[in-house]
Prior knowledge:
CATH superfamily of the largest domain: Zn peptidases
Largest sheet: 15 strands, mixed
CATH topology of the largest domain: Aminopeptidase
Strand content: 15-25%
Structural class: alpha/beta
Distance between the termini: 51 Å
Radius of gyration: 28 Å
Number of helices: 12
Number of strands: 19
CATH architecture of the largest domain: 3-Layer(aba) Sandwich
Helix content: 25-40%
CATH class of the largest domain: Alpha Beta
Amino acid sequence: xxxxxxxxxxxxxxxxxxxxxxxxxxxxxxxxxxxxxxxxxxxxxxxxxxxxxxxxxxxxxxxxxxxxxxxxxxxxxxxxxxxxxxxxxxxxxxxxxxxxxxxxxxxxxxxxxxxxxxxxxxxxxxxxxxxxxxxxxxxxxxxxxxxxxxxxxxxxxxxxxxxxxxxxxxxxxxxxxxxxxxxxxxxxxxxxxxxxxxxxxxxxxxxxxxxxxxxxxxxxxxxxxxxxxxxxxxxxxxxxxxxxxxxxxxxxxxxxxxxxxxxxxxxxxxxxxxxxxxxxxxxxxxxxxxxxxxxxxxxxxxxxxxxxxxxxxxxxxxxxxxxxxxxxxxxxxxxxxxxxxxxxxxxxxxxxxxxxxxxxxxxxxxxxxxxxxxxxxxxxxxxxxxxxxxxxxxxxxxxxxxxxxxxxxxxxxxxxxxxxxxxxxxxxxxxxxxxxxxxxxxxxxxxxxxxxxxxxxxxxxxxxxxxxxxxxxxxxxxxxxxxxxxxxxxxxxxxxxxxxxxxxxxxxxxxx
Length: 512
C-alpha cells in the first residue's frame, strides 16, 4: 500500500499543476496593457534622459521605481534601504588641445582623438598619402619615407583590406590598417584626415565603466600609438597652406616631410561614480528563508548631445514587467495570498555597461544565494523579432530552460499551457548561438552562482536596437502583457511549491 502511494505521488503533483489556480488568474489579470503602458511611458519618457548608468536620469529612474515599490507595500531589500548603491569607475578625457603654427583648433569641429594622457610637440610631420601597406597588392605608401619617431599624416580611405575582425569598435576601427602600418614603421603617432567635420554627434570622451578601481591614477598613454582624426583645415595648416585644401587636392599632394609646429595635449582622469540596484521584498510565510528573484535592468544608453536613447523595449519593458508583477503579487498578499517563499523584485543598473549591477549584487548579495530557488529575468518583452519566419507575435524566447535545473522547463511549460498559451522558443539556448544571448543579460550573474534561471526575451535586434528610435510608441502592449503574465504564473508556482528547484544540471557552457 505504501509503495502504491509513493508511485501515485508524481501523478498527483502533475494533476495539481494541471488544475488552474483561480487566485493566480485573478491577480495576473492586474498585468494589463494599459497598466504597463502607463508605467513605461514614465520610465522610458524624456524626463529620464535615457537612464544611463550613474547619470542623473538613472538616479531619477531609481527614485521612481523605489516609490513604486513603497506604494505597493514592499519592504526595502537592502537593510532599511530600497537601493543597493555601488561604485563604478570610468576614465574621462577632461582636457584636449591641438594647435598648429600657433593656431588653436576646435574639438569635434576640426579634430578628435581617444582616451589618452600626454603632451606632444613636433616641428615636422610626414605626409604618407593613404598610409597603407599591403604587400599582397603591392602597396607601400611609406616607400622612401623616414617616419621613425615622427608624426604621420594620412588620408582616410584607400583600398587596403581591413584587418581581421573589422579593426575593432573604437574611434579608429575603419582605419585600423593605417594605424597598424604607422606603428610597424616606428611612427610616434598618426593623424587621419577626414572630410567628416564638423562631427554630427559629439565625440564620446568617456571610457567604459568598470566595477574595479584602477590600480593607480591614469598616467601615460592609454593607446600604444597616438591616433587622432583631423579635418582638412588642420591637414592644410600642417602642410604649410594658409587656405584649406579639399580632399581631392590632398590626394594630389606630394608625400614627404613638411615643416610645421604641432602641439597636442590630452589629460584623462579616472572618476569614481555611483549607481544603484533597486530592490523591493515581499516576505514569504512558511518558507520565508528561501527566495525567488524577479529581475530586469532599468538602465539604458542615456543621451548623445540632445539625442535621447529612450530604451523603451531595452529594457524599459522588462523593468516595467517586474514592477507590474510586484504590484500584482503585493495585491495578492494583501488579499490573503502571501507567497510561501520570500520574493525579491530587483531592477538593476549597469547592464548596458557589462552586467555591472547584477555582478555587484552577485558578489554582495543581500541574502544567501544558496537559498535562492530561481531568478526569472525579463529583458525586452515588448516587441517582435522581424527575423522570425512565423507570422505571429504570440511567442517569447525562453533562455536557460535546459540549464542548471530540470524543474525549470516543466513548470514554465505547464503554466504556459494552463494560462497564456504562447509559443515558447528555445533557439537561443543552442550553445552555438552566434549572438551569445545567454551571456548578455543579468540572469547570467545568478547562473554563475548556481541559481537556476529563466530569461524571457523578445529577440528584437533590428533597426531600433540601441537606437534613439526604441520608443514607447513602438511597444506592442498586448503581447507584452501576455509575456509578463507568463512570468507571473511561473513565479507563482515557484514561490509556492513545496520544494526549491533542483540544481541538477551542470552549466557546461564556457565563461562569458
